[in-house]
Amino acid sequence: MRYLHSLLRACRLLPLGLAVTLAACGGGSDGGEDVGPPSGTQQYPGGIWEGSVGTGTSQRVMVGFIDGGVDGKGGEFYFARGAAGAAGYDSLYGLLRTQVATIQATGVTYFSVQDGKFANGLTLRGTASSNPVTGRTTTISGNYTSPNGTAAASGATSNFKLTYSPLNNFPGRADLLAGTYRGAGMFGGQWVLAISARGLLSGRIGNCNVQGTATPRAPDSAVYSITMSLIGDENTCAPYSGTQQVGIAVLRYEAAGKEPNGIWIFTRNASGTANTYVLDGLADPKQPTIPSPVPLSINGNWAGTLTLPAGVIGDEGVWGSVLPDGGFFLYTNSSFNHDALYGRLIRYDSASLNRFVTANDGVFFNRLAGGTGNYQGGYIGGVLVDATLESAGAAGAATRMTGTYSYNGQLGGYPTRFTMQPDPLYTLPAGVRPNINLIVGNYRMQGASFGGHTVDISVAVDGSIVGSTSNGCKIVGKLSDLPNQQPPLNLYRVEAFGYLSGNLVPSNTIGCELSTGPSQSGAVAALFDQEGRVSGLRLLTAGLQISGQRAHTVFVGNKR
């Protein structure tokens, strides 16, 4: 666990009609010194707390916060308890008060992340004690009753011990909070949130889009106030679409304590369907960026690397194209076939300084799964893709794209991270403008890279595509320019791309197993040599039938 540090003093949060106040965690003096209550007298429990619950093999991490309230003796609290089986964190929240050294809360709510069930009416009791030198409340020992009716039910009280966390001692500042944070869990807990320096929040939790605010609660507090509105349709975000969450966030730091490297977020519903979140995330590395007054363009051709989850072996190079309408296709290369990731990116508003794009309908093709390859996603709620764009100063143009893709059942259990830059091999040479005439010609992709089949493609002056494969398929398709793109793009749109049997009549022949697949569409880009001449062609397409049948094509051929 990583830690932070700052003393929490009186500060208030009144989001969405819920009164939540954070007051002195240990008192204070006019001279700014930490002067807490004498040992054995009134305790003041406000602050961030960390420790454990249970014993032996059933012991779990416990972390959370207590709002000091207007008098410092307690208010709303939220504890997160590590769930069994690495499922994430259960939630325990309500209202507590401290009478001298005794802490008590009744009517407590417990949420079990393993089965998504709530238990109400729990009782929490404990004893607080202070440091004999500073007088600050530093430890809480106690227990809570069993959350009956959930997967976390134990039939007995659960004992816990917490200590006042060094998470309290760093300052809360908007510039420290600004950034992108990501996390994942076994049970569909993939999430990403981008927070701007102005405190605007946007992103995704599971299949729900999120918009809200994240701001420091007070100059001398390590805690940030969070509000989140969940947005989505009945297919992607049910039953939480239209609900609102309120809570707090706390940053985590590297050992040196200079830059945040992670975040805790604790929220619960302020309106709508009962819901709660414990988000334990890592911060994307911060890169020097220049704010863009307009959305950064992601259109073009990209190349980069993948960072695979621990224990997962696979290709690490990744390439692809993004069309002006957000259609994207990324692929990895191998000696026999390709993994492929495609879908449509959408952009969040200026809350992320025009730098955040996402897709929830992505498709991932794993070339090694099932012997002949396997598709994941392809419908609403499919593969999740989240990316942050960066600029080195070119007006409106992204020069770096970092992000992740994730899906249920993903190897390693965590998202795959990618880092990409504009691909110099597919950049238009100086003075060259894209047009169909530029790429007219014949291209061949050798069989070692196309499932064992050699593929020939010809592009005519009217944009028509014809070709053949060595296993008896005929190829047809149609190219068109992308007009009025500034700056000009080395991209062409391809439609009605597909495979026919050898006699040009669609049928399920043994020779052309692709002839019954759906019509495909996508992007084409030209490869240039060092003299600026077209030396190859890349075609990336995919299709989906109403029946659910899917197909895609990665053609990277040399000019003949």
Outline of the structure:
The chain is an all-beta fold and 560 residues long. It has two helices and 37 strands. Strand 8 and strand 9 form a beta hairpin.
What does this structure look like?
The chain is mostly beta strands and 560 residues long. The protein folds into 3 domains: 1-178 and 216-277, no CATH class; 300-426, Lipocalin, CATH 2.40.128; 436-559, Lipocalin (Beta Barrel). The protein has 2 helices and 37 strands. It is elongated, with a radius of gyration of 28 Å.
Walk me through the topology.
Blueprint: E1 11-13, E2 20-22, E3 47-53, E4 60-66, E5 76-82, E6 89-95, E7 97-99, E8 102-112, E9 117-130, E10 137-144, E11 158-164, H1 174-177, E12 179-183, E13 191-195, E14 200-205, E15 208-216, E16 223-231, E17 244-253, E18 260-271, E19 276-283, E20 300-307, E21 317-322, E22 327-331, E23 340-344, E24 346-347, E25 356-366, E26 374-377, E27 383-390, E28 400-406, E29 416-422, H2 436-439, E30 441-445, E31 455-459, E32 464-469, E33 474-480, E34 492-500, E35 520-528, E36 534-544, E37 550-559
Antiparallel strand pairs: 1-2, 3-4, 3-11, 4-5, 5-6, 6-8, 7-8, 8-9, 9-10, 10-11, 12-13, 12-19, 13-14, 14-15, 15-16, 16-17, 17-18, 18-19, 20-21, 20-29, 21-22, 22-23, 23-25, 24-25, 25-26, 25-27, 27-28, 28-29, 30-31, 30-37, 31-32, 32-33, 33-34, 34-35, 35-36, 36-37
Number of helices: 2
Radius of gyration: 28 Å
Largest sheet: 8 strands, antiparallel, barrel
The average pLDDT is 82
User: What portion of residues belong to β-strands?
Assistant: over 45%
- Uncertain stretches of 5 or more adjacent residues: 1-39, 504-510
Residue share in helices?
Answer: under 10%
Count of distinct strands: 37
Domain count: the total is 3
Shape: elongated
Structural class: mainly beta
Strand order in the sheet with the most strands = 3-4-5-6-8-9-10-11
Distance between the termini: 58 Å
